[in-house]
Amino acid sequence: MKSLVIVVSLLLIGVGTQAQEGCLADRAAAAGHAPFEAFHQIMAPAWHQAWPNKDYDALLAVGPRFVEAFTAIAKLAPKLKTAARRRAFDERRQQFSDLVARYADACRQGDTALVYKLMPDLHEAFEVTAAVLLPISYPEFEGLIVTLDLIIQTHLPNNNVEGLVGSTETLLAKMETLIEAPLPLDLREQEAVIRPKLEMMRQLVLHMLESLYQSNIKEHIIYATELKTLSDEFTALYI
């Protein structure tokens, strides 16, 4: 439970940053969870217009619509990549469901004060539930992939040996940072499995650099290709 609370807290902290990249619900919908977009179509005007303007008639009117739209969210069975994410989604969705029910009940009773009070909590529950469906944030791994892609997509096709050496040295530095950094909270339950995979990647980077120092581009390509395969598999499994 403690780890779940930490996961949820980090998701809440990330909401402000992620908003700059697009609404969490829109991003969840883009990832294949369309019911969040349907709910967002109702939430957006209620939250951005009716609530700040204290348009109580509009706030009361959306109660039944929230209940109807939540039905599809309640049926979602997302394929989340970690047990921590699955637990977080189940708990967040249950709290979201409870707030939808409370909000709708307040609407039926015409309790404008309670409806107005509940709206921020309902909006937050909606956003945080959607956030659990987004890819896990792993900046150190993402940085590694940026440099690896530069090597494979730019330096190798252009036969840029100087660029290969510089970028592979950067890749090794990023790999060392990745090895030393703590895993994201969502992945720590699988640390015993993940750490050996990261070490395999580190060994490949060392071989890539050694090959360059020996002017063996063909061997460098073999190791870079293997690293790309492993990193793609890692992303598919965990990110």
Could you please describe the fold and organization of this structure?
By secondary structure, the protein is mainly alpha-helical. The protein has 2 domains: 131 residues; 100 residues. Helix content is 79%, strand content 0%. The chain has 11 helices and no strands. Helix 10 runs antiparallel to helix 11. It is elongated and about 80 Å long. The two termini are 22 Å apart.
Defining traits:
single chain, 239 residues, mainly alpha, disordered N terminus
Number of discrete domains: 2
Major pleated sheet: none
Low-confidence stretches: 1-21
Please trace the helix and strand order, writing H or E for each element: HHHHHHHHHHH
Structural class: mainly alpha
Quote the beta fraction: under 5%
Give the overall form: elongated
User: Could you tell me the number of beta strands?
Assistant: 0
Number of helices: 11
The helix content, as a percent range, equals over 70%
Radius of gyration: 23 Å
User: What's the rounded overall pLDDT mean?
Assistant: 89
Distance between the termini: 22 Å
